[in-house]
Design brief:
single chain; 318 residues; mainly alpha; 13 helices
Length: 318
């Protein structure tokens, strides 16, 4: 009995910081699994049930209402000088990027989409060099070259590959990466000035204003709501609640406790999760729609992108 009390008193106490870091990693992992699943889930209702523009409208409206519902309890004003920056964040981070993404997903394979998304850290670094004066080193230049070769190779391969690949679709997806990277560069300087809910709420408000010219007509006049099934509503709910609302919150939470390069490295989860989803679809559900979308060329392009981002993120020894 004495030994029990001695061991209990001497046992190490849980480290709150370590638990927080673990939660941050789990949040990032969950984020990119949700993204990977979204590539397959959202594609299932386009364009037969919902036009890509209309789906973006529903996404921005739904997620915007959720964020502003939380923002109601956060009394914080935004300085007039930052309104223009937030408007740009809305343009690139909640409007153009989503319009290009869903148009691309509508045309190309979810596998291609998930691989192209891994080029985001490299694109962010290039934009950081141009606008934030990020330090350039030899191995980072090498990383950009290798990663760029993989991304460009995959996009171009879309015009000759079998299966569901599409050159135009891959270009749209890469434009999504480019637009969202612009958003990350623009939002970075104001992240420390305001609560993250304040920033996201304004981003989605401006995103809605910029999306209306593209999506209003398709949502009101093109979308056949009478043809919607329970599955259609579940897919749209998934896109709004999980792919948008939860992932934005998970990303912000993780970035408060982990570095940006660590967060960016989790984009590698998307192609791996996509490969597993295709395997489950083909083996368990006997659905071979995307089986031909996995081949050695795409895997090789994925590895080139991963190696490139690793070289960019690697810290140089002093």
């Amino acid at each position: 009995m004495t030994d029990f009390f001695i061991k209990t008193r001497c046992s190490p106490k849980p480290n709150p910081l370590q638990n927080t870091i673990i939660k941050a990693h789990l949040a990032l992992f969950a984020t990119h699994v949700i993204y990977a699943a979204n590539h397959f889930i959202a594609k299932g209702i386009m364009p037969q049930k919902v036009h890509p523009n209309a789906l973006v409208m529903l996404r921005v409206i739904g997620a915007g209402l959720l964020f502003w519902g939380i923002k109601f309890f956060i009394r914080e004003r935004v300085a007039k000088k930052d309104i223009f920056k937030l408007a740009l964040c809305g343009l690139f981070g909640a409007s153009l990027n989503q319009l290009s993404f869903f148009h691309g997903l509508n045309l190309t394979s979810p596998i291609d989409t998930s691989i192209i998304m891994t080029s985001a850290p490299a694109v962010v670094f290039i934009l950081s060099i141009l606008f934030l004066k990020e330090k350039v080193t030899k191995h980072k230049i090498l990383g950009i070259s290798i990663g760029g070769l993989g991304a460009i190779g995959l996009v171009w391969y879309g015009q000759v590959a079998e299966g569901n690949s599409s050159l135009l679709g891959n270009i749209f997806v890469f434009l999504n990466v480019l637009f969202y990277s612009f958003y990350q560069v623009i939002v970075k300087p104001i992240m420390h000035k305001y609560h993250f809910i304040t920033i996201i709420s304004w981003v989605f408000l401006f995103g809605l204003l910029f999306t209306i010219p593209f999506g209003f007509k398709d949502l009101v006049y093109t979308t056949n709501f009478n043809a919607f099934t329970i599955n259609t509503y579940l897919v749209i709910s998934y896109v709004i609640v999980f792919t948008t609302f939860c992932t934005f919150l998970f990303n912000i939470y993780a970035l408060q406790h982990l570095s940006a390069p660590v967060a960016a490295s989790y984009t590698y989860v998307q192609p791996a999760a996509s490969f597993i989803i295709v395997l489950i679809l083909s083996v368990v559900f006997q659905n071979n729609t995307y089986t031909k979308d996995i081949n050695w060329v795409k895997i090789a392009c994925c590895f080139l992108v991963v190696i490139g981002v690793y070289l960019i993120s690697k810290k140089q020894k002093a």
